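Methods — Computational structure assignment.
A single polypeptide chain was analysed. Its primary sequence is given first, followed by the predicted tertiary structure written as structure tokens.
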Amino acid sequence: MFKITIETIPHSNQRPNIGETVGDWNLDTSPGVTDIKVSKMIYSQYEELIAIHELVEMILCHDDGVTTEDVDDFDRNWKPHDGIDEPGADINAPYHRQHVVAEIVERIVANELGVDWHKYNKAIDDVLKGNQ
């Protein structure tokens, strides 16, 4: 048995030293408990989409033996390059496949909710840049 908590937090309260992100999962913060933290966004639907992405990514990583530490170590040292703007999109990420699948699910749900993908990503960029 396990427990998953999903919480919306101020962006400034995201875990430090893991790289810039609006969504974060942390397996086994205490025995059998996984936390997902989502940065506060302009619309709750955006927060829900981030939460869905993180949940799918976390489940797939857990199933494949990719740990929080594996992800954090990669993200902490990662820099944008070759047009890749987030660590999970980098083919060298230990969670690349899981990230891609999570984004596919996220895009499907966004489409079903009528969320404009470009506006959504602009809102994420605004939070990351401190403009929201």
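Note: The longest strand covers residues 23-30.
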